[in-house]
Amino acid sequence: MLCLVSVLSDTESTVLLGAVLSLLAVYPTALTAGGSVGLISDTLLDARPHCERGRQELWAAAGALLGAWLGAFVIPLDWDRDWQVVMASLVRRGWAWLVHRYRMYELNTSVALLEPNEKVAFHTFIFCILSMMAYSTYVYLPHYTLVLLARFGLVVADTD
What we know:
By secondary structure, the chain is mostly helical. It folds into two domains: 2-70, no CATH class; 87-151, no CATH class. 68% of the residues lie in helices and 0% in strands. It has six helices and no strands. It is flat and about 75 Å long. It is a multi-pass membrane protein. Keywords: Endoplasmic reticulum, GPI-anchor biosynthesis, Lipid metabolism, Membrane, Sphingolipid metabolism, Transmembrane, Transmembrane helix. Belongs to the SPTSS family. SPTSSA subfamily. Pathway: Glycolipid biosynthesis; glycosylphosphatidylinositol-anchor biosynthesis; Lipid metabolism. InterPro entries: GPI_biosynthesis_protein_Pig-F, Ser_palmitoyltrfase_ssu-like, SPT_small_subunit.
């Protein structure tokens, strides 16, 4: 709420805002300009800098000001609201959902009936099959797609 405070009623917040903005907007420019006041003012006050460094510094300063302005808005999902879900319960519910989905997978594939060492062997086999499918898709599918597109005349390409 720093950008919306009255200058006279809350001077401490206004001074802190000025310090943060000068740190974020002016300090990087001062470092690259070597502390020269003329270069700093030319970079920050010139609407169209002539060099790439000046453009980058101007965009960094504008980004700092825009970020400070956007950061002043109150986010409607504040943690002190009674309707807001606490992050710990979100993690707990997410973990419960994953456990439920894994149990459903075990029941649907009848893996739940296997011994623990059989489960490891089964999951290793499934992982190897899926890994080979992913690898072959990555290696062969781009070339195969290009051949099909060239066959239908959509792309002119060398299919050798």
